[in-house]
Amino acid sequence: METKYRCNCPFTSALDVLGDKWMLVIIKQMLIENKETFKDFTESDEAIATNILSSKLKQLEEFGLITKSKLPNNKKSVYYHLTDKALDLTPIILELGIWSDKHLREVHPTIVNNEGMQLLRTDKAQFGRVIEEKYREKLATTMAPMKSTSLVLQS
Q: What's the whole-model pTM score?
C-alpha cells in the first residue's frame, strides 16, 4: 500500500495515516478494551462495518502498527497485536480521552465516568503505565503458546 502524503508537515503526515474515523478507535479497542480478534471488533459498541474493519486492519498491519498471528491449537482465528510503534500512540489516545472528558461531556453526558476515567483525570502517567503493562502482560500470555510451539516445531 502506498500512502499519499499531502505535504511534508509531520503533523499532517501523521494524520494522513491515523486521521480517519477508525484507525485510533481500533488501536484504543486493542489497548484499553482488550480486543484481539475480528469477532471482538465486530461486537464492540462502535459497530464498525466488517468491510471497513477488514480494510483498516490491513492498513494498520501495512503501517506496522499491528501484527497478526494464529494460535497453534486454533488455526481458524486470527489474533491481532499492537506493535511498539502503536504503543507509542498511547499518550495521544490518553490526551484524546482527557479532551473528550473535558469538552464533550456537556453535550454527551453518557460518556464513561468510571474509575479508569477518574485515574486518567488525576494521574495520566499512572493510567498510561497501567494500561500498557496490562497490554504487555496479556500479549506475553497470548504469544507464549505460539513461541513454545514454534520452538518445538523447529527442533
A: 0.85
